[in-house]
Every structure is written in structure tokens, then in C-alpha cells.
Design brief:
Fumarylacetoacetate hydrolase, domain 2; 6 helices; alpha+beta; 5-stranded mixed beta sheet; binds zinc ion; 13% helix; globular
């Protein structure tokens, strides 16, 4: 199943059409796309048992993030071996930080340039349908509602200002977390642990890899995070980026106003975001 947030309402996407969940369920399920994760098992059961009405055509420009307001966003740094090598930070344990919820954007929204050094990072994002603590790695996927595409847009000057890197702040400017266009349930994917992903900037391929190259795959990541924190339904996990970020290039390359970022993951679709003039840091 493919779910989306159409102008703030939860829809099931069927080809080029969308079925409004609140109307199709006669109010049993809320229109709020974030609330479905609280009742995920019940929702799956309803969707399986119900003869859904025909969908209606829709304008993709009205899509928002399929998880617009998670209570927690986890983001994982240095989780692809080639990316670890490119930035020269060898380690054994993935680095965990957050992107603040206010940075979430829709799949086709513009990204205001805050000044500094703005970089791209394609990432598989998993959204949880079940929370928990001390979840074994082999049960990790059973806690996932679905996967979507994320861009972990990063401003490197802010990220590196201070005595230690502060990933969370440098990656949380407004619209720095575009997500979408749909949430795909894992059963739709032949192997959810092996998906091609890429970032293309102004037509030039910058990143191209497969999620099977992660150091800690989705199951082990969920185990690691839940060994410390309590995971909650609707939480989003940005699972890290492969090599090809601008910071790792010689010389480094960053995004400017007018640039277009296309972010693709196999079996999910693509994000399309343009960088626009914005409020500059410190102004
Ligand atoms: Zn990242």
C-alpha cells in the first residue's frame, strides 16, 4: 500500500488517483496523516478488509510529508562505508542526532537558502507503526509502517561551528527535511533492505548507491535506538547517506539559489526541490 498526505489529509494512493481515508472509513480514521501511525495495525486490518471506493485524480504539487509531525525524528550519520571514507571519519558505531520537526517539508517544496554551505544527502526514511523499547534487530522491520524518501539537507558551517559538530542544528533550517512523495509499506518491496537511491543536482548525478551498503541496516538501527530510547508510533528515522555529498568533493561543492535537487529511491518515487533565496544566517 502507498499512503500520502494530500493537502493535510491522509490518502491511499492507487496509481494516479487518491482515496481519502477519513471519508472512505466514514470517520473511523482521522484525516490527520500523522495519527494513522497510532492505530497502524487496526488501519492495516481495515484497509485489507474494506472494498475501497475508486480514487480521485489529484495534483501532486499538493502532497506534503507522509509523516508531517512525528514526535521524534532520529537521524543517523556515517552509516555507509563509502561516505565514512569520503569524510575521513572512521568509526564502528553510527552517529545519532535529530532533525527538528519544524524542518519537515513536502516532496516538492522550495528550500530557502540560509547562506553558508548547503549540501545534499539522500536517505531512506523509515516511519514506525509500532513503538517499543529493546526491540531485537530481527524484529525491527515488524515495527516499520513504511518507507519514504528523505533529503537530509545540511548547512555545513553551522554543523561545524563549536567545539564538536552539531549536526542537529546544521540540518534543521526551515524545509531542510523534505520527505515523500508517498509512504510505501515494506510488503510492496521485493527486498526493503536493498533499494537503489540517488541524488541528482541540475541533472548531474551526485550520489548513487544501494541501501544494502548501510553499515547498520534498518533492523539493527531500530535495535540500537530502542536500546536507549522508547520509540513511538509515527517516529521517523533518517537512515544515513552514501558517498557523493558536496562536502566530500575536491574542491567541495554546495547548493546555490536556483539549483534543483532530484532525490530518488527505487520503489518509492522521487522528491523534487528547488533552492530559493531565503533569510540569511545572522541577518
Ligand atoms: Zn544525513
Amino acid at each position: 500500500m502507498r499512503l500520502a498526505n494530500l493537502a493535510g489529509r491522509l490518502v491511499i494512493v492507487d496509481g494516479d488517483s487518491a482515496i481519502d481515508v477519513e471519508r472512505a472509513s466514514v470517520g473511523v480514521f482521522s484525516a490527520d496523516p500523522q495519527l494513522v501511525y497510532e492505530r497502524w495495525d487496526e488501519f492495516l486490518d481495515w484497509a485489507r478488509r474494506t472494498r475501497l471506493p475508486a480514487g480521485e485524480s489529484y495534483d501532486p504539487a499538493r502532497l506534503g510529508s507522509p509523516a508531517p509531525s512525528p514526535r521524534q525524528i532520529f537521524a543517523v550519520g556515517l552509516n555507509y562505508r563509502d561516505h565514512v571514507d569520503e569524510v575521513g571519519l572512521a568509526h564502528d558505531v553510527p552517529v545519532v542526532f535529530t532533525k527538528y520537526v519544524s524542518s519537515i517539508a513536502g516532496p516538492y517544496e522550495d528550500i530557502p537558502h540560509p547562506g553558508g554551505e548547503v549540501d545534499w544527502e539522500v536517505e531512506l526514511v523509515v516511519v514506525l507503526g509500532r513503538g517499543g523499547r529493546r526491540i531485537p534487530a530481527e524484529e525491527g522491520w515488524t515495527h516499520v509502517a513504511g518507507v519514504t524518501i528523505g533529503q537530509d539537507i545540511s548547512e555545513r558551517v553551522t554543523q561545524h561551528a563549536g567545539a564538536t559538530p552539531q549536526f542537529s542544528l546544521g540540518k534543521s533550517f526551515p524545509k531542510f527535511a523534505p520527505m515523500g512523495p508517498v509512504l510505501v509499506t515494506p510488503d510492496e518491496l521485493a527486498d526493503p533492505d536493498d533499494l537503489a537511491l540517488e541524488t541528482v543536482v541540475n541533472g548531474e548525478t551526485m550520489q548513487r548507491s544501494r541501501t544494502s551498503s548501510m553499515i547498520a541496516a534498518v533492523g539493527p538501527l531500530i535495535a540500537q535506538l530502542s536500546s536507549v530510547t522508547t520509540l513511538l508510533p509515527g517516529d521517523a528515522i533518517f537512515t544515513g547517506t552514501p558517498s557523493g555529498v558536496g562536502l566530500g568533493m575536491v574542491p567541495p561543492r554546495f547548493l546555490g539559489v536556483g539549483d534543483e535537487i532530484v532525490t530518488r529511491i527505487e520503489g518509492i518515487g522521487e522528491l523534487r526541490n528547488r533552492v530559493v533565496a531565503g533569510d540569511v544566517i545572522g541577518a
